[in-house]
Amino acid sequence: MADQGNFVRVTRLAKKREAEAMVKHLQQPNKKRVVLGEIQDLSNAGFNQIKPKTKQITTKRKVKRCVSEKEKEIDVDAKLDDDPQMCCAYVSDIYHYLHQMEIEKKRRPLPDYLEKVQKDVTANMRGVLVDWLVEVAEEYKLLVDTLYLAVSYIDRFLSVNVIPRQRLQLLGVASMLIAAKYEEIKPPHAKDFSYITANTFTKKDVVKMEASVLQSLKFEMGNPTAKTFLRRFTRVAQEDHKNHDLQLEFLGCYLAELSLLDYNCVKFLPSLVAAAVIFLSRFTLQPKSHPWNLALQSCSGYRAADLKECVLIIHDLQLSRRGSTLAAVRDKYKLHKFKCVSTSSSPSDIPDSFFEDTR
Question: How many Cβ atoms from other residues are within 10 Å of residue 281's Cβ?
Fold first, then answer.
């Protein structure tokens, strides 16, 4: 019996060793999970020789970007290839689509709706409303995109609906409620917008106006704004700076928000307003240098001459020659977190030569 027991133990041990040998033979070297871009050379090394991820990858594979015929002269996206947020491989197609969208009639307000449609609302009333909505957006910590969309809804609604001045504030909060639902992760509730009007309008009033706006605009709520184009134009404008220029970025944001206050800017396409803002921002920071160049012209599709009327209007706003009583935007950008750009001085006149075609 003892011999039989020893035989069984030996047999089991042999089978165990045989199994271990088989597993060892079949088992491949340990692998680390890697990003394909980190694989430097697989011709002379196995996966087990791949170096672990470091904070800085020293070798980068350069991929030649295919450019369209329009971009062959100036590749405005060449310096943005390393930024995945810019979608550089197809950013031109995206902005071409946005340019086509912004000119659609259903997404544009009438340029003269106050004269042709409204009977009781003036440009000054509209400015006061937008100025107040800037404060509302700050109070509820809303995205600036929400503000731009809300103003867009207001202008589009007023282009087709006559309302008394007493309901203009209600239109403003209802438009911001819709925009917040479109843009925000956690938008305020209807009761919050009722409260912000000092309960002048009830929650029921806000919801009813919200439905009216949605039906009037045929639920076409997504459309590009000046802020949409400003993001890209700012990137291109900073190409001649070694470091990211926050002063230029904040100044552009400030001037773009000032443009929301003025009824005379309603007639301009959002992309043109964004281009005019970049022109004026660069002029403010470097008044002796030409603020426009071929890269910006290629990117925006506008020549300096195309921007003149819009630039002069926003310049008047910047110098308080227009809308001087509307203080919300100016106060907002006096804060240090925005580098106090609203206090930046600008020459009172822009040379006519700056509006000549860039060579």
Answer: 31
CA 158 – CA 163 distance, rounded (Å): 8
- The full set of domain ranges for the chain reads 104-216, 226-355
Burial bucket for residue 248 (CB in 10 Å: 0-12, 13-18, 19+) = buried
More confident of the two residues 245 and 152: 152
In the predicted structure, residue 181 carries a pLDDT above the cut 60? yes
State both tokens at 81: 């290839």
CA distance 273 to 76: 20
Q: Which amino acid is at 335?
A: L
d(CA 14, CA 324): 94
Q: What is the pLDDT of residues 70-89, one digit of tens each?
A: 444 445 555 555 556 556 67
CATH architecture, domain defined by 104-216: Orthogonal Bundle (1.10)
Question: How remote is the C-alpha of 267 from its chain's centroid?
Answer: 21
Instruction: Please return the burial class of 306, using the count of CB atoms within 10 Å of its CB with bins 0-12, 13-18 and 19+.
Output: middle
Q: Which two tokens stand for residue 147?
A: 């503000």
CATH (one of 1.10.472.10, 2.30.42.10, 3.40.190.10, 1.10.10.60) for 226-355: 1.10.472.10
- The model's pLDDT over 268-293, given as tens digits with 9 standing for 90+, comes to 999 999 999 999 999 999 999 999 99
- Burial-class residue 140 by CB neighbours within 10 Å (0-12, 13-18, 19+): middle
Place of tokens 């106060």: 331
